[in-house]
Design a protein that fits this description.
- The protein is mainly alpha-helical.
- The protein is about 60% helix and about 5% strand.
- It has a two-stranded parallel sheet.
- The structure holds arginine.
Length: about 475
């Protein structure tokens, strides 16, 4: 059962129930609508309650509230958490946000003790703490999903350590590579994304709770205690910065954006590779769609959506950067605009990562077609030039020139390099021997690329083992 939402402006409300004496009248309907965040920040309920528990325990330990009040507060918070989880909680827009909704319900349940929970705290340090806890949880979840994606890529790389495909620069056939090597390139990218997530997590892990509204508090609070209780490395050092900082949200969105770049490149290649023109790959039925008019079509919609959704994540980053720029210290209500892009971008990337993992796991690679294409476009020309350098001791620049002439000759004859006769070769350079034909095959080409980080199947097998060790540990 979903929680209920009470969106109606309460006409019987002549004074503000939340601001008490200072206001004669409640907000207008429009004011309530623009001001309220409960529609989206209810997602912070678990983090909000976690923060309140830590705060209440600390207040009691410091003698700021009584043990009895703390006990009542903790029991009330347990009950509220149960109500929200079970879907039996009515969120009220009149109460603006998750903080006021929880506190107001707490007062209904435990009475006056509830009013003591907000001692030495403000919604400003509260929301900063809640959002940090939320981002931290999101990072942990996403990191697990990225690990699964890496494992899927490594499994397929192992399977295709020796499968030859064309490698491209400028999307022109460049040199033959192995499919395993190609897949491991994405393992590297995702590895950097995970390392960025880890950095972001480490940097955000300081607790703003206790900064209060902006200046700290006159109560003898123990910020070390609340920080430790919430799994932070320690408290933030400057109260003004604590309530006005959203770097961690920006940083997380930046990390998501770079991840979006990576996934969109992989997605784009899936779109290309599944086309009839490439014919390198087939996405499984459960990740493809058909066309309502063209019966032959198999569309890689999931890949296209991953490619497209990256744009939405960049938008979230740009949106929040723009909200934060030029904001005077400290908290401004503008900052309430942090949540929707944050939640949306995080959900979006989690979905994209799952879709990618599913597609990689179930894809069929047409290795025969890839191998055939790997030899097209004079892709072994560099191997020929290298042979001239190695065997005939030619300077590389000269070898490049001779190879260029041979490519031109082959092109004129309408054959590949391996289709040239020895006599053809001799018309360009008399020193060439029949041994040259050995390097013109794509298998030989990839096998010779044994330099560290190169594409040779033996390298790929070793790289798979090392990647698995790094990722699975
Ligand atoms: N809903 C607010 C937000 O998301 C909470 C903080 C409000 N603080 C305040 N002083 N009005 O930013």
């Amino acid at each position: 059962m979903p929680n209920k939402m009470n969106n109606k402006n309460n006409p019987s409300q002549s004074t503000s129930t939340i601001w008490g004496g200072r206001f004669k009248a409640g907000p207008s309907a429009v004011m309530e609508e623009i001001n309220a965040s409960i529609g989206f920040d209810q997602r912070l309920y678990a983090q909000d309650i976690r923060g309140s528990r830590a705060h209440a325990r600390m207040l009691a330990a410091q003698g700021i509230i009584t043990e009895a009040d703390a006990k009542a507060i903790l029991q009330g918070l347990d009950q509220i958490e149960g109500e929200i989880k079970a879907g039996g909680f009515t969120f009220s827009r009149t109460l603006e946000d998750i903080h006021m909704n929880v506190e107001t319900r707490l007062r209904e349940i435990v009475g006056d003790a509830a009013g003591r929970l907000h001692t030495a705290r403000s919604r400003n340090d509260q929301v900063a703490t809640d959002v940090k806890l939320w981002v931290r949880d999101a990072i942990d979840g996403l990191d697990g999903a990225l690990k699964d994606l890496q494992i899927a890529l490594i499994d397929r790389a192992e399977e295709h350590a020796g499968s030859v495909m064309p490698g491209f620069t400028h999307l022109q056939a460049a040199q033959p590579v192995t499919l395993g090597h190609y897949l491991l390139a994405y393992v590297e990218m995702i590895g950097r994304d995970r390392s960025r997530l880890k950095d972001c997590r480490a940097r955000l892990n300081e607790c703003p709770l206790g900064a209060a509204a902006l200046a700290g508090t006159s109560f003898p609070i123990d910020r070390e205690q609340t920080a430790a209780a919430l799994g932070f490395d320690g408290p933030t050092r400057n109260s003004l910065d604590s309530v006005s900082d959203r770097d961690f949200a920006l940083e997380y969105l930046s990390v998501l954006s770079i991840l979006g770049v990576h996934l969109s490149r992989l997605a784009e290649e899936m779109v290309l590779w599944t086309s009839v023109q490439f014919g390198f790959m087939r996405v499984s039925d459960d990740f493809s769609t058909g066309s309502s008019i063209m019966p032959q079509k198999r569309n890689p919609d999931a890949a296209e959506l991953v490619r497209g959704k990256a744009g939405r994540v960049f938008g979230a980053l740009m949106g929040l950067l723009t909200v934060m720029k030029g904001l005077p210290l400290t908290y401004g209500k503008d900052m309430q605009e942090d949540k929707e892009p944050l939640f949306d971008a995080s959900d979006t990337m989690e979905l994209c990562v799952s879709a990618m993992t599913g597609m990689i796991k179930s894809a069929t690679y047409h290795v025969d077609r890839m191998k055939l294409d790997a030899g097209k476009g004079f892709a072994t020309a560099t191997d020929l030039a290298d042979w001239l350098v190695r065997v005939l001791a030619m300077p590389f620049r000269d070898a490049h020139h001779v190879t260029g002439a041979l490519v031109k000759l082959a092109e004129d004859k309408g054959v590949g390099l391996e289709g040239l006769t020895l006599a053809d070769m001799h018309s360009v350079n008399a020193g060439i021997t029949k041994d040259v034909f050995a390097v013109l095959g794509v298998e030989n080409s990839v096998s010779s690329r044994t330099s560290f980080g190169g594409t040779a199947p033996a390298n790929v097998r070793a790289a798979v083992r090392q990647a698995r060790e790094r990722v699975v540990q």
